[in-house]
Amino acid sequence: MGKMIDRQRFDEWYNEIVELADLCDKRYPIKGMNIWKPYGWKIMQNIDAIIREEMEKTGHNEVYFPLLIPESCFKKEEEHIKGFSEEVYWVTHAGGNELEERFLLRPTSETALYSIFSLWIRSHADLPLKTFQIVNTFRYETKMTKAFIRVREIHFFEAHTCHENFEDAERQIKEDLEIAERFFKKLCLPYVISRRPDWDKFAGAYYSIGIDVLMPSLKTLQVASIHQYKQNFSIPFEIKYEGRDGKHYYCHQTTYGMSERILGAIVGIHGDEKGIKLPSSIAPIKVVIIPIIFKGWEERIMEECRKIKEKIEELGLKCHIDDRDKTPGSKFYDWELKGVPLRVEIGPKDIENGVISIARRDGIKKKMPVNEIEKLKEELQEYDKMLYVEAEKFLKENTHIMKEIEGKEGIVELPWCGKEECGKKMEEELDMKSLGIPLPQKECNEKCAACKEKAASWLRLAKSY
Ligand code: ZN
Questions:
Q1: Predicted confidence band at 2 (pLDDT cuts at 50, 70, 90)?
Q2: Which one in 9, 20, 154, 222 has a CA-CA gap of 20 to 30 Å to 66?
């Protein structure tokens, strides 16, 4: 297995590899708005397909709301405006006319959906309402932008649900965590879950849960968030239902959000000096065949390649023959860069021996008899497992459970009394940000690392993107 990228070089490596691996083009003349190239977009669509499958399985229905939100809708929830006011793009003109009411480009869609949910929901029979959409959102980032990780036009997934009561909304959050578990396993991404501290929860949320991964730079990256809104939005948006007793109640709401950052996490966590490594679940090409041409064997070899491709596609694996007029070595280089899980080489010796030569993107090489070709599926499973195991090892090695504040890198967990000032003190002394209370919550019988009073929980901290 190729080694993870050295942490000092990571950011530089990342910025180059996203273009070298043909995922995006950063030359569009608006900063932070990149072009999805066909290969990168296909991977993202494969990620979305896994999300859609999970949504379908859990009874969520897909919607697609307009991009523009009237200012009056956006302003209904006070905390929400405060949280986003510095980050929104405004539309002020249409043609030559100044608009009477300004519109904003959605930074997230609560305020667009909820003004309509209040029309859709009438009775308890309409609940739970479980919807999601996959759309672009816009945030005016002022920090340095970074492909997939910090961009101004974001490919975004958001699930929004409405419930009769708090308990039912809590059950939804439990379901969201189960969805996340299945979803990230398919992408071979280990993660940590934290309940965000109150000073860092989502604008308008009752509480927020963050799902973070650890990048080779030893900074964490938030790849998903789940919010319990209680009735914080349903009251200003008047999302009410008639209960079983004939009285009217405000709904309880939750959201679950993810974005193209997931692709950033895959690039970073599974990358090495040769390029990216795609989990088989999302690789647009799962097997690439490289003909090893020798003089006099040209036709024979190409014929064998086509035969093998057919067999591989019968297994349901997307396969591509690289018949470009280039040396095998330069083809290996290209496909390793793009993270194709399996490479199959076919040369005269292989044909004579009735085998194919296999090279997994994680470095494992072997010969496989052609009549056992269905074993390629096992190779892919084994490869995915290795991706996960390596990433998990890295996460564990760089998580430090400590009693005192001391300089460490990666993820740190310290005993915490729960007071904001103590959390802030830890942040300052470690030069890190609080990710929050580790979930599922672990017992803590220690003293707060800041004030030495009895700790109520652990506090997880890290440097993050
Ligand atoms: Zn304290």
A1: low
A2: 222
